[in-house]
Amino acid sequence: MPPLRSFHKHLFLLIFFCNAAQAQLPQPVAQALARAGIAETGVGLYVHEVGAAEPLAVHRGELPLNPASVMKLVTTYAALELLGPAHTWATEMYVDGVINSDVLTGNLVIKGGGDPKFTIENLWTMARSLRAKGLREIRGDVLLDRTLFTTDHPDPGAFDKEPIIPQNTTPDALLTNFKSLAFTFAPDAEARALRISVEPPLAQIQIVNNMTLGEGACGFWYNRIKAQAQDTGEAARITLAGMYPRSCGEQTAYFSLLGHREYTGALFAHLWRELGGTFRGRVRDGTAGANALLMVTQRSLALSEIIRDINKISNNVMARQLLLSLGGSSGATPERGSRAVQQLFAAKNIAMPELVIENGSGLSRIERVTARGLGQMLITAYRGAFMPEFIASMPLVGVDGTMIRRLTNTDVAGQAHVKTGLINGVRALGGYVLDAKGRRVAVVLLINHANAHNAGQVQDAFLRWVHAR
């Protein structure tokens, strides 16, 4: 048996080298960073096997970094804990007036409940239910009650000066169909022209088609479209120009052109008339009176299903809706939602003093987390009651979601549930890896650097190292 002094010496050296190892990047990751031209100073890394007392590897774990869409993990985890996986949202229709035979003398009120995925099919179902109850003619206005969330909408083009792309759609208590319009581009061989149609076919949308047909490979056809939109208040005009390769066949692109009130009102009027209803009034904001009669309630999908869309396909506006839902029952704001998340983490002893939440989606330049803080949240989430729902919401590497084409035909495929994030200067990853020995490992890799767009190979090297360690 070695002397006590020798034992202490060996123990000191063991602790020293363990700590030194934790401060170093794994060699495959360091090499990939060098190839990508990314300095290690802008990288935060955290690897922690579930059930272990200490992390396996940490690099700049206390450095606050922008997580891009990985912030959605914070928002969805908090929602599971605060609302529960079975939580649903209600959208309601009231009649505020008198119904005589099949005629409403008064207003129809549509009250938004903050549903993150209230679709055109949901609105059609509600309108169909009204018709089934005998209502045909509305002799009044359609009022949209959007008071659950603040109506001080941010500029949808503030982040990247692209206000008409659906990923920049702002939240709303009565968010309908993500406020999106599907434009179908179809070459007409006989006319030697490109036909453009829109769904839903709202009368408020005017299309100026300056597109031309051309030859060559289809490639990234969407990037060739030059779209300019002009919002005229109740209507919008979009001018489309550029060359469309004939080889692309029929394709669809999505744009967001109208305001929330205008879009939902126009869509309801369109559906109502398709169902044989009559409406000649205005669409305006408003609330139901004290004597209004509830006619139809539409419940949303459960939260456990909602977060799958948020994380697997990285839906920004759904994440923003979710953060607002954490902010209270009336006039909710992102700030109130952020405070609710901070209070939850404090109660669960998740140390994230550096946490900054602007909108909960990662579409932000000021949101911040640390690799260690996010890693500790992942460990806490794994030990929680809603771990299965949380993990199942993340993309499965090489299988689905935003990771469907990543690391296919490798040992990692199907063995890691991870959320990724990408904006200019930021590339991030967080989630869980099942390693080659069947151990679950929480992983975080945050990269903030001018060359972050090159970091896909770094993420792949990181996941392969964790899996094969």
Descriptive key words:
5-stranded antiparallel sheet; globular; alpha/beta; D-tyrosyl-trna(Tyr) Deacylase, Chain: A; 7-stranded mixed sheet; 3 domains; Beta-lactamase; single chain; 469 residues
| CATH 2nd-level architecture of the largest domain | 3-Layer(aba) Sandwich
- Counting DSSP H or I runs of 4 or more residues, the number of helices is 11
Task: Give the end-to-end Cα distance, rounded to a whole number of Å.
Answer: 33 Å
What's the rounded overall pLDDT mean?
93
Quaternary state of this entry equals single chain
**What is the CA-based Rg, rounded?**
26 Å
Structural class: alpha/beta
CATH topology of the largest domain: Beta-lactamase
List the helices and strands and how they pair.
Elements: H1 4-23, H2 27-36, E1 43-49, E2 57-59, H3 71-83, E3 90-100, E4 103-111, H4 120-132, E5 137-139, E6 142-145, E7 181-188, E8 193-199, E9 205-214, E10 226-231, E11 236-245, E12 251-255, H5 260-274, E13 278-279, E14 283-285, E15 293-299, H6 303-312, H7 316-325, H8 334-347, H9 371-383, H10 387-392, E16 416-423, E17 426-434, E18 440-448, H11 456-468
Helix pairs in contact: 2-11, 3-6, 3-7, 3-8, 4-5, 7-8
In short:
The chain has 469 residues and is of the alpha/beta class. It has helices at residues 4-23, 27-36, 71-83, 120-132, 260-274, 303-312, 316-325, 334-347, 371-383, 387-392, 456-468, and strands at 43-49, 57-59, 90-100, 103-111, 137-139, 142-145, 181-188, 193-199, 205-214, 226-231, 236-245, 251-255, 278-279, 283-285, 293-299, 416-423, 426-434, 440-448. The chain folds into three domains: 4-86 and 304-468, DD-peptidase/beta-lactamase superfamily (Beta-lactamase, 3-Layer(aba) Sandwich), CATH 3.40.710.10; 90-153 and 260-300, D-Ala-D-Ala carboxypeptidase C, peptidase S13 (D-tyrosyl-trna(Tyr) Deacylase, Chain: A, 3-Layer(bba) Sandwich); 181-255, no CATH class.
